[in-house]
Amino acid sequence: MNQHANPNKSVNYEALFKHPLFQGVSLEQLRLLLQYCEVRMYTRAEKIFHAKTPRDGIVLLMQGMVEVYVEHGTNEKEDVIEVVHANDVFGLSCIADFLGESHHHHSYNNVGVRAVEESTCLKIPFSVLEIRWAEESVRDYLMRKMAVRLKDVYGSLAEFAQLAKQWGESETFTRRVMDFMSHPVLTIEQQKTIRDVAKTMVDNRVSSVIIMDDGELTGIVTEKDLVSRMIATGGNLDKPITSIMTHKPCTISKYAYYYEALSLFLTENVKHLPVVENNKIVGLVTLSDLFRRKNRGTVKILQTIEDSNETNLLDVKDAIYDVLNSLINDGIPVTHILETITNLFDRLVKHCIDLAIESLDKQGHGKPLVPFCWFQMGSGGRREQFILTDQDHFLVYQEIDEMQGDPQAEAQNEQAEWYFSFLGEEIVKFLEMAGYHRCKGDMMSNNPIWRGSLSKWEERLRSWMLRSTNEKIMVANNFFSYRFVYGDQPLYEEFLHTIKQQLSRSSIFLYRMAELEKLNPVSQVGAPIRSLFGFEKKNLDLKKEVLFQFHHAIQILSLKYGIIDGTPTQRIRQLVDKQVMTNEFADDILTAYASVMRVRVEHAWGRFRRNEESNSVVPFNQLKNRDKEELVSALKTMRSLQGHMLIEFGL
């Protein structure tokens, strides 16, 4: 905790008299000024300034050492940009506010300050600074300090620009949407007809138009909409534009990064995104804009995926790996790397399923008779797959209710079962062509155990939960990492309802899952890190000794509170919403998760590039000291999470 001190007892007056900020004042004047200041002592790693918080003065570091860092978000490691030593000042960025200079644009201050060691700080408010500002020596001192900092900033920017030039292939990933959006945007009121909108688009030579209602965004219309949806209106051009527009379209912030825009285009399957700032339309970005930003083929991978077939499916993997390599080289945060790469892999997987359905149709087996859903499990299900691994998936299909009296129901259900047995095998075949190895444990939708109608899945889940053997729990742990990737949304919702019903009747099952996890704690490598090499343990298997336990703890805890799907990050946020854990603890967990995944990605990608056998074992002697420190801290947090989960079950 921060400890407040009485300035008259804690301040070294002799040192302050010599400091440029207070040189020339009398003892009485100094004591008077210090009455408006605040002395605080901070322990190691304690935050002095939090990011995104207002500042109302500067700080003189009287004793110790602090570091200034840039915060990228709760999931990512901060970057240290400056170290401040005793008798120096920090917080100079607020001088502009002190001088009355307002911001010319909206921005967020992501800069924070924390103690590197036990430190004593003197917080000097604007009121005291205003009194001392009259002294020319004080103004000169602060201006010199600011000039040095400004020089450092420009030096860093120049270095960043040079690196961006060197890494040209991923330069666009560091740009913001505002850098390549189109503006101003063509808008039209929603009371207009299709004819009005079509004429406006032709006259202005644009491929899309934003639809507004009293200044509010209500929709978007593209050339494709005009052509494809006009058929539904019977070709009536005098109908309102609302009859064919896309209602409540996806939007993106002007401050979003290139790779965030790319991810949104991929996940939402759109080609136009309205750009917003403070809920106002300020621009438009299209998929073509992203294509134009690239000199080579990173973004064209979308077309590569869509155009791939049996003969060149394997080429897509290499194209995705090129993107991965660029992102890693440029130091893009690991959560954004995984998001971008997962979206590309999802696109590939969906294309494989489409190819499988087309293949069966060409063979004379027709199209699916009933709706179905296809799910990924494991790292793909958790959205943390970056290198293609073994296949891990299952399939659920709708069945016709034989109780409704349809004499054909039984025959149609048998036909559906027959069709999906073929489809399961065909999907596995195309995924294998794309570079996904077959699962050694046979957890794939071509296996009848991992395929079935909704009622069969209900029976399957019930059997797992009634007979909670260690083997069934192991299978369930993998199952509950599922993620819906392809298929019918209403059936997916029905499937979730089935799972929730079964869990509500099987509390002992979750207890058994937790009980088994107690026997498999998160690995402990010891602390402080300097003593690490004194331990016999020289390696750490990040999957088997850390991530499995972490994921199981999150899954079990979320299942207990009715959260039955979602990625680890989504589940953690939902647990906060349900007040199962605090925001602070959730942030710590997400930071720990990101730290482990960063080391995992860098280590695995390095092995892949060196053509070494893939594994998740990290030798300590290959890690940088900072990475070791981060891992020790992350494992401690993950053990706390595991302990939190066990307490929930009285273990």
Automatic annotation (TrEMBL):
Domain Cyclic nucleotide-binding span(s) in chain numbering: 21-91
PROSITE patterns linked: CBS (PS51371), CNMP_BINDING_3 (PS50042)
Domain CBS: 181-239, 245-301
InterPro entries: CBS_dom, CBS_dom_sf, CBS_domain-containing, cNMP-bd_dom, cNMP-bd_dom_sf, DUF294_put_nucleoTrafse_sb-bd, GlnD_Uridyltrans_N, NT_sf
Keyword Nuclease belongs to the record: no
Pfam hit, one: DUF294_C
CDD domains hit by this protein: CAP_ED (cd00038), CBS_pair_CAP-ED_NT_Pol-beta-like_DUF294_assoc (cd04587), NT_GlnE_GlnD_like (cd05401)
Domain of life: Bacteria
Keywords, comma-separated and alphabetical: CBS domain, Repeat
Sample GO molecular function, one term: [protein-PII] uridylyltransferase activity
Identification of the protein by name: Signal transduction protein
